[in-house]
């Protein structure tokens, strides 16, 4: 606390001095931004630097950045297009797969149906064939029986005539002519 | 001397050049114009040199500034305005980089001189007027006659519109200039408090913490202002260019 006032007293005049020294130094020129004597130089150098800057940006920098951005947008668009194309392809593949699946299912049904029909038809023909052969065998057998019966019947007539002739001979003792006996047998029959 | 907040705007001749009685010396201001252009141009050129499909950080900055200005111009002036894109982009980058460079200690702020901002504003308004008449002929004057105004009011409205048009270069240039000037003076004054107060010993050093904190905060604010003023300058340029392209309101 003893020291600080001392410093203050020492420093205060120095500060004042500094201010008074400053005064005349910039009092001579006006406020720098309004000092018209610097204007031609500032305008000239602004025109040169800004002009070159403008040309440099317009010729070199902006086409380059524009190209980079365009390139990127093009690439993104291309990637999106490709992605959607692949998506479409995948959808088409799924659709084709399902189509094939339904086709295969339908074909399987058709094949099954055909197999069933074919089996049925062949069974039917086989049955018909067997029936036909059985019918034929039956007809043959009946015809055979009929012929045997006819033959037997014929035999029976002869046997009856012989028997009748033999009986008449035994009983009556005479011989009858065959015609009479045959007629008599026929009449009995 | 060291605390003089105006000293930082002083122009000193580096290479004296005089043509026809006019002083065209290469000054510290000229040097910083060159530095601004070189820094901005080199940054934009070098960061995009790899033309990466996937941009790096620095390339992203260049691309973002490109798209930022492009969308600003497209929103304000439509797709017809895109022919002015190199112009608006150059203006934006020049003002932005000049403002940002000026924030480095001991660096000169190009945009803290009214003549520089006024020259840029005149360039904008000159472009608007020349292109407006070139594109629309006499129809460009429709700019001063808003549609749907009752006949009695037209003279008054035209007067107001003319005054507002004429004040555009002034407001455009003064806004940028005053922001830069005031910001740098404020910074210097607060920084000056720190050195003056710390000369008063322990109490002074304790008291200088507040202006030091203010200096830090204002430095942050000035970075925002540097960007914001470049943005405002570019946006207003876009809107004025829109008037040249579509003069009917």
UniProtKB/TrEMBL annotation, chain A:
Chain ranges passing through the membrane: 39-57
Keyword Transcription in annotation: no
MF-aspect GO terms: proton-transporting ATP synthase activity, rotational mechanism; proton-transporting ATPase activity, rotational mechanism
Entry superkingdom: Bacteria
GO cellular component assignments: plasma membrane; proton-transporting ATP synthase complex
Keyword Ion transport: yes
Coiled-coil intervals: 80-114
Cellular compartments annotated: Cell inner membrane; Cell membrane
Descriptive protein name: ATP synthase subunit b
Organism: Neomesorhizobium albiziae
TrEMBL record, chain B:
InterPro entries according to UniProt: ATP_synth_F0_asu, ATP_synth_F0_asu_AS, ATP_synth_F0_asu_bact/mt, F0_ATP_A_sf
UniProt KW keywords: ATP synthesis, Cell membrane, CF(0), Hydrogen ion transport, Ion transport, Membrane, Transmembrane, Transmembrane helix, Transport
Transmembrane annotation, as ranges: 29-47, 84-108, 114-134, 143-167, 187-211, 223-242
Keyword field contains Cell membrane: yes
Membrane topology: Multi-pass membrane protein
Domain of life (superkingdom): Bacteria
Record's protein name: ATP synthase subunit a
Species assigned in the record: Neomesorhizobium albiziae
């Amino acid at each position: 606390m003893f020291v600080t006032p001392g410093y203050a007293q020492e420093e205060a005049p120095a500060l004042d001095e500094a201010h008074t020294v400053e005064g005349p130094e910039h009092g001579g020129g006006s406020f720098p931004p309004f000092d018209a004597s610097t204007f031609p130089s500032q305008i000239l150098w602004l025109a040169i630097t800004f002009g070159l800057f403008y040309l440099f940006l317009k010729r070199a920098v902006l086409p380059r950045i524009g190209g980079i951005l365009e390139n990127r947008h093009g690439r993104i668009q291309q990637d999106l297009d490709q992605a959607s194309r692949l998506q479409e392809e995948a959808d088409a593949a799924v659709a084709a797969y399902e189509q094939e699946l339904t086709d295969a299912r339908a074909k399987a049904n058709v094949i099954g149906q055909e197999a069933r029909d074919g089996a049925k038809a062949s069974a039917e023909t086989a049955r018909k064939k067997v029936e036909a052969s059985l019918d034929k065998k039956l007809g043959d057998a009946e015809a055979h029986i009929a012929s045997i019966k006819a033959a037997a019947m014929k035999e029976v007539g002869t046997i009856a005539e012989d028997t009748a002739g033999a009986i008449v001979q035994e009983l009556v003792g005479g011989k009858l002519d065959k015609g009479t006996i045959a007629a008599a047998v026929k009449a009995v029959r | 001397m060291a605390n003089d907040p105006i000293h930082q705007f002083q122009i000193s001749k580096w290479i004296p050049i005089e043509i026809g009685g006019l002083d065209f010396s290469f000054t510290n201001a000229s040097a910083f114009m060159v530095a601004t252009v070189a820094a901005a141009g080199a940054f934009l050129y070098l960061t995009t040199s790899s033309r990466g499909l996937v941009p790096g950080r620095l390339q992203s900055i260049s691309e973002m500034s490109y798209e930022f200005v492009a969308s600003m111009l497209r929103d304000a002036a439509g797709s017809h305005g895109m022919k002015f894109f190199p112009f608006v982009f150059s203006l934006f980058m020049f003002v932005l980089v000049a403002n940002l460079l000026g924030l480095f200690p001991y660096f000169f702020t190009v945009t803290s001189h009214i003549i520089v901002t006024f020259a840029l504003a005149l360039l904008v308004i000159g472009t608007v007027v020349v292109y407006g008449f070139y594109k629309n002929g006499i129809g460009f004057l429709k700019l001063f006659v808003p549609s749907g105004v009752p006949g009695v009011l037209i003279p008054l409205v035209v007067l107001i519109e003319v005054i507002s048009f004429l004040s555009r270069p002034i407001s455009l240039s003064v806004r940028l200039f005053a922001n830069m000037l005031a910001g740098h003076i404020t910074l210097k004054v607060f920084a000056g408090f720190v050195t003056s107060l710390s000369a008063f010993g322990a109490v002074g050093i304790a008291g200088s913490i507040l202006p030091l904190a203010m200096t830090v905060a204002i430095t942050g604010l000035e970075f925002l202002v540097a960007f914001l003023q470049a943005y405002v300058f570019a946006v207003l340029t876009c809107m004025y260019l829109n008037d040249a392209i579509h003069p009917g309101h």
